Amino acid sequence: MRTRHGSSLEDLRRFNRGTILDALATSGALSRADLARVTGVSRATVSSLVHDMLTDGLVVEERGKGTPHKGGSGRPPILLRLATPPGVVVGVDLGHRHIRVAVAERTSVIRAERTIAFDVDHDAAGALDAAARLTEQALAEAGQDLGGVAGVGMGVPGPVDWRSGRITSAVLPSWRGLSPGAELERRLGHPVSVDNDAYAGALGELSYGAARGFDDVIYVKAAGGVGAGLVLGGRLHRGTSGIAGEVGHVQVHADGPVCRCGSRGCLETQVSAPKLIQLLQPAHEEELTVARMLELGRQGDAGANRVLDDAGRTIGRVLADLCNSLNPAAVVVGGDIGPSPALVSGIRDSVDRYAQPDAAAALRVTAGELGDRAEVMGALALALNVSAAA
Fold it and tell me: Which domains does the chain have, with CATH numbers?
């Protein structure tokens, strides 16, 4: 997350350099002209900063493939991509009920991955301690130690104020006021880039999954809660204080149950995974889980598919208004219940019904390609950004 500090020319130059590295980490290889367009930094400044970054070994040049920029004649443009110095990167995904850590090469090839069940919401300190232990175990499995780490990225299940790095929302009481990136850095001895889990999922699908090739995307994480990561102009959009995309707390039922955020009738009180299991459980003697509910849906169980389709339609009603405002090219559905065809179909039907026809016609609604690993892959992308900017 890029925060602009101070007003000196050196501060501005450092900020612009970080913005360029962010763009390369998110979008892959880009020409100098594309960097200027994507970042809003002037071409002259881009050229000057790229010259310095080439000298410092942060980026490398490669010849582009295909036709020249804008279809002109001559050679394809020279593209810039992040260099891949030695060392591994670490991605940490803190979900509501799990911790997942992946160790990868700078090319994003996974070397080791570990997952444990953990009540992250109610034990912030314990979750960070467990994440540090899991990181050390995964590094050992990959044949590395903390000295070989080039960057660490982490997704957390709550909004992070990018200005301070703190979690200020009342949704996670044990995390409120905490700076999760600084806390994990204290445990590991390495800088940590931290973001909301839905933003991490969006970055994962943008970098490695179903959102590749799209500049404007809404990533929806439907799990124990509901959140969204917004990609606008090829880059994550976090908003003024880091709460852009909090669709789970849009009111959909004025007289609904009180939500953990303090409001009532929020979207996530109607369509979270635990709520759907609660609705479906009376029709089944066995104790249901999310995995079993999805399996029943795949097997054609009418009740399971009805519950999932209804949930999709409710989510789609909220997304329809967002699609009218943002006009995205794709909605990518992830999280625990994101793989459900009935859920995705319900979202598509609701967007078709309630969004402007032109906005709906331009939109692709699809399940994510990365499943429950979208967030850890996004955390790895954040880690790559940290290592490049270091």
Answer: 9-82 (1.10.10.10), 88-202+374-389 (3.30.420.40), 212-368 (3.30.420.40)
